[in-house]
Amino acid sequence: QVQLVESGGGVVQPGRSLRLSCAASGFTFSTYGIHWVRQAPGKGLEWVAIISHDGSSQHYADSVKGRFTISRDNSKNTLYLQMNSLRAEDTAVYYCARGIYSDYWGQGTLVTVSS
Amino acid sequence: DIKMTQSPSTLSAFVGDRVTITCRASQGISSMLAWYHQKPGRAPKLLIYRASSLESGVPSRFSGSESGTEFTLTISSLQPDDFATYYCQQYNTYPHSFGQGTKLEIK
Fold first, then answer.
1. CA A12 – CA B67 distance, rounded (Å)
2. Which of A44, A101, A106 sits opposite B46 (nearest CB)?
3. B62 contacts B47 by C-beta, under 8 angstroms
4. Residue B25: CB atoms within 10 Å
5. What does the pLDDT look like over B7-65, one tens digit per residue?
6. CB contacts < 8 Å between A and B, how many?
7. Alpha-carbon distance A97 to A94, whole Å?
8. Closest chain B residue to the Cα of A42, Cα to Cα
9. pLDDT reading at B107 higher than 90
10. B69-106 exposure pattern, b = at least 16 Cβ within 10 A, e = fewer
11. What is the pLDDT of residues B51-105, one digit of tens each?
12. How many C-beta atoms lie closer than 10 Å to residue A42's C-beta?
């Protein structure tokens, strides 16, 4: 069955970096674009970024552009989100989600940016 | 950027009621709209894509429709499992913006 499993979350100080991973299984990873979506505590969903199936194209929300980088390794069936210059407002559960309209989601990983 | 405006923000209803949630796009999105629901502590779940296509395995009491830039999610007869927060999302143009959510509560 399709599975997406995020990891790499934790507590980090403002200005520091963190890399999230999303391990995929149960489908042909290299044929799907994948998103990152986040949700701050008690708030709604915010789309963060997307990468094309082959990694050749990426798009970002304005709130993370220039600080976050989405990438993938199709040989490892893994998606990444490199987060630099983290701010308190980046505190959220980060989900990876498959496909243009996100038919499968991971369980999320919590990132807390705090001193 | 395209802004998605959902209404209402909160909705109280009884089991068995018919309810509708509306999502308005600030510009045309060519039917590229999805609906999700989310329960506390859980990941969102896809219900509807391309404005009116029912995702596999989703009960037929859920339906979607569109009229121009206004999109509607209808639940024909609420079940206890349907009380959750509902989100629309456009995926026509980057950034793929979400509505602010509609919390559906038991009356």
1. 45
2. A101
3. yes
4. 23
5. 999 999 999 999 999 999 999 999 999 999 999 999 999 999 999 999 999 999 999 99
6. 54
7. 10
8. B40
9. no
10. bebbbebeebeeebbbbbbbbbbbbebbbbbbbbebee
11. 999 999 999 999 999 999 999 999 999 999 999 999 999 999 999 999 999 999 9
12. 5
Nearest CA of chain B to the CA of A19: how many Å? 20
Give the best residue of B10, B35, B91, B93 to mutate against chain A (max A CB count within 10 A). Answer: B91
Q: Residues near A65 by Cβ (< 8 Å), separated by ≥ 6? A: none
CB neighbour class for A39 (10 Å; exposed up to 12, middle 13-18, buried from 19) = buried
Q: If you write DSSP's letter for every residue of B52-68 in order, what string do you get? A: TEEPTT--TTEEEEEET
